[in-house]
Design a protein that fits this description.
Layout lengths: L1 E10 L2 E12 L4 E5 L4 H4 L1 H11 L8 E7 L11 H11 L5 H4 L3 E2 L2 E2 L5 E2 L4 H10 L4 E2 L5 H4 L7 E2 L4 H8 L30 H13 L3 E4 L6 H6 L10 H14 L13 E2 L7 H5 L9 H4 L4 E4 L7 H5 L2 H6 L1 E6 L2 E6 L3 E6 L19 H7 L4 H5 L3 E4 L5 H6 L6 H21 L12 H7 L4 H14 L3 H18 L6 H9 L6
Helix pairs in contact: 2-3, 8-18, 8-21, 18-21, 20-22, 21-22
């Protein structure tokens, strides 16, 4: 006697279909799970046995084999408990085989028969909708799964509730989609930042074009303060971006109450973070901070204090927008289209610019400190900005800065120009920082004076081919903020002024 239903296996944010087959045959009583299960899946037999016993259902003394197909794909997690239990209950006549087995199911079982929440309900609901099947998931995951309007969702709190639904005693209502997560109620405002006009302009350029930004200055001048206010001037996520961002957080188990993400993520890992924590990896090839910040901001404070391998692991995601995790038994990719914002002191003590307070190793201490960051990584950062110290007496006299709302309006207009231009050119990118260099060269209209200046600057600064393209992107963003149809000499000059000489 064989029964089968469906579940999913998560490979990155993709939910791949899995067929769960259960066969009961005469023989020595046993219960085995095959198909490359991990420890959590192998232990499901004990949870399933106890959960069924709580319903008064005893598994007969037969040889029971559960196969998870395809057999060559590793299976991880406790979400296979529910589909295994459904197959066994259908085989014992507790559930009607039709339609109970024509479902995709995920859920962990408690020993009392409760169906406990699991990660990845949103990708699983998408996979179920594509397969034209209902999704059976825990009640706590129901609001998250209901975000996929095309899928039929059953969200029982226990096995008993599922049995009552299929027997017609108490049909389960369709869960309501979770309300959007709009992030913190109070958004930090740029008006709080006094002075630092050059850094504020660089922050606006970074927001408008999606450019990477590095802030360099002594302690306490407002580098972190500026970075934390970047989300307040970024436009909200588009529906496609919101879906991708929510799916990553769903797989990582970071969704609160299944609420979809509406604000751009802002991730600020500590400088002690490992390579796996930043780029992703570990035993389960989990997404790292660069993926959790997808479509948002990755803020690295005290940049040189991060370990060298951890920083170097970001080079490929920053260039391609994808974090690839290669392991002996798995190759997983996560989206990682992030905007990097970093901050650092000019030297270890941070007082390099003040001769009266700097150490006796200046200026060599500053050069050594900056060498902790590799040239290829610095080359991927479009805007390098010095943030000088300002006397407290001067700060007291300065008025409040321009509020975030005014800056956000200019950023939104610049992004609308970019989106229209790249849509007309047939490019999928929405911002200048994500457009291929060859397309930039064909599309950007440079004045003769601007091109001559760019050529001289490239020779003088020793720009690489990547650096040339990134300067062009920043110049194009400056033109978009000005509403100019052509990139002029002033736009190129501003872009070059933010570029650090080759190291």
């Amino acid at each position: 006697m064989t029964q089968s239903c469906h579940s999913v296996a998560f490979v990155g944010i993709e939910a791949r279909p899995i067929r769960v087959e259960c066969m009961m045959t005469p023989g020595v009583p046993s219960f085995s799970v095959v198909g490359l299960p991990d420890k959590a899946v192998a232990e499901s037999r004990e949870r399933v046995r106890a959960a069924l016993a709580s319903l008064g259902v005893s598994i007969p003394p037969r040889k029971i084999v559960v196969n998870l197909s395809p057999a060559d794909l590793p299976k991880k997690g406790a979400h296979y408990d529910l589909p295994i239990a459904i197959c066994i209950m259908a085989g014992l006549g507790v559930l009607p085989p039709d339609p109970a087995l024509r479902v995709t199911a995920i859920g962990e079982l408690g020993l009392d028969g409760a169906i406990r929440p699991v990660t990845g309900a949103l990708p699983a609901a998408l996979a179920a909708a594509q397969a034209d099947m209902p999704l059976v998931c825990p009640a706590e995951n129901g609001p998250e799964a209901a975000l996929v309007g095309a899928a039929e969702i059953l969200a029982p709190a226990s096995l008993l509730a599922l049995v009552n639904h299929y027997n017609g005693k108490r049909p389960l209502p369709r869960p309501s989609p979770a309300a959007p997560d709009n992030g913190p109620e109070t958004i930090r405002d740029l008006a709080d930042v006094k002075g630092q006009e050059r850094a504020r302009r660089a922050l606006e350029l970074a927001a408008a074009g999606g450019h990477n930004l590095l802030l360099i200055g002594p302690p306490g001048v407002g580098k972190s303060m500026l970075a934390e206010r970047l989300p307040g001037i970024l436009p909200p996520l588009t529906p496609e971006e919101a879906l991708e961002t929510t799916m990553i957080r769903s797989v990582a188990g970071l969704l609160e109450r299944g609420a979809p993400v509406r604000r751009r993520p802002f991730c600020a890992p500590h400088h002690s973070a490992s390579m796996a924590a930043l780029a992703g990896g570990g035993r389960d090839a989990a997404p790292g901070q660069v993926s959790l910040a997808h479509n948002g901001v990755l803020f690295l404070d005290e940049l040189p204090e991060f370990s060298r391998p951890a920083l170097e692991s970001l080079r490929q995601p920053l260039e391609s927008g994808v974090a690839a995790i290669a392991r002996a038994n798995a190759h997983v990719t996560y989206p990682a289209s992030v905007q990097l914002v970093a901050a650092m002191n000019p030297c270890r003590c941070g007082q390099l610019a003040d001769p009266s307070r700097a150490c006796n190793r200046a200026p060599k201490c500053g050069q050594d400190y900056r060498r902790r960051i590799s040239g290829p990584l610095l080359d991927r950062i479009d805007l390098h900005v010095e943030t000088p110290a300002q006397p407290a007496s001067e700060l007291a006299r300065l008025p409040q800065g321009e509020p975030s709302a005014a800056v956000a309006a200019r950023v939104a207009r610049a992004r609308e120009r970019q989106a229209a231009r790249w849509r007309e050119a047939g490019v999928a990118a929405r911002v200048n920082a994500r457009v291929d260099g060859a397309v930039i060269e064909k599309t950007v209209r440079l004045s003769e004076q601007a091109r001559a200046l760019l050529i001289r600057a490239a020779d003088r600064l020793g720009l690489s081919a990547r650096g040339w393209t990134r300067v062009l992107r920043v110049a194009l963003t400056a033109a978009d903020l000005d509403g100019a149809e052509q990139v002029g000499r002033a736009h190129v000059a501003e872009a070059v002024s933010y570029r650090m000489p080759a190291v």
